[in-house]
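Before the break, one more example. Copy the sequence into your notebook; we will annotate it together after we see the structure.
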Amino acid sequence: MNSVRHWPDLFGDHAVAAFRIVVGFLFLCHGTTSLWAWPAEPYGGATAQLGAWPGWWGAIIQVVCGTALIVGLGTRLAAFLGSGSMAYAYFWGHQADGALPIQNDGESAALFCWAMFVLIFLGSGSWAVDRLLARRREEATPEPAPATATDTDPASLVDA
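Here is what the structure looks like once it is written out:
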């Protein structure tokens, strides 16, 4: 019988995948709100101007990386880029308004930054395109030929 203490071993990979999908979805929504005012109006009411730094570019990063995280494609790279963009947003967009995220309205930037930072190390978990691609590469890689006596015998390396 499986006890609760074995759940991390049994379901940990699935929990990482669920975490990745939720973080990716929220990140995607953050970007679509900034670009197209969907599914909600952006903070301040105006969408990002086309090509404007950093708002428009940050929103593009959020849409692309959020989508990649949801499907689990290039998870570590998407998490790295997303985490970095949120660190930038926090330090250059929020930090001047107060020392702590609760004071400067930077909670979402800080949480996204650290959630994606963790995904850099955890990877995609299960239910990811990354896993399917890795499995296909393993199946396509031929097995090495077994070693023969001449391959392992040091005396065979000396010319007679």
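The mean pLDDT is 89. Helices lie at 7-36, 55-71, 75-94, 101-104, 107-122, 129-140, 149-152. Try to locate both features in your own notes.
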